[in-house]
């Protein structure tokens, strides 16, 4: 994904298209339960610098910012939403 993000951002920049990636870490979602470990985020929280998992809303806010005019100069970038990990 990193190579795709960087390469595509360079390819389409002159067209005014911005390409960025959001890389969520341990986020409280049903995905962990579906994978057989419903308490995975809580178990790993002590190893995350912020000592907690993230929320889907926190991921959504980062994506909304990237889509906004406030991020109009951001392309080929990555946002790690991983509590400092």
List keywords for this structure.
85 residues, alpha+beta, two-stranded parallel ribbon, 4 helices, elongated
Mean pLDDT: 96
Radius of gyration: 15 Å
Silhouette: elongated
In whole angstroms, the N-to-C terminal distance is 19 Å
Number of strands: 2
- Runs in which pLDDT lies below 50 for 5 or more consecutive residues are none
Strand content: 5-15%
- Spatial order of the strands in the main sheet? 1-2
Q: Give the helix level as a range of percent.
A: 25-40%
Please report the number of helical segments.
Answer: 4
Main sheet?
A: 2 strands, parallel
Q: Could you give the order of the helices and strands?
A: HEHHHE
User: What structural category arises from helix and sheet content?
Assistant: alpha+beta
Task: Outline the structure in words.
It is a single chain. With 85 residues, the chain is α+β, with helices and mostly antiparallel strands. It has four helices and two strands, in the order αβαααβ. A two-stranded parallel sheet has the order 1-2. It is elongated, with a radius of gyration of 15 Å.
Topology:
Elements: H1 2-12, E1 21-24, H2 31-34, H3 40-44, H4 56-67, E2 78-81
Parallel strand pairs: 1-2
Give a quick rundown of the structure:
This protein is of the alpha+beta class and 85 residues long. The chain has helices at residues 2-12, 31-34, 40-44, 56-67, and strands at 21-24, 78-81.
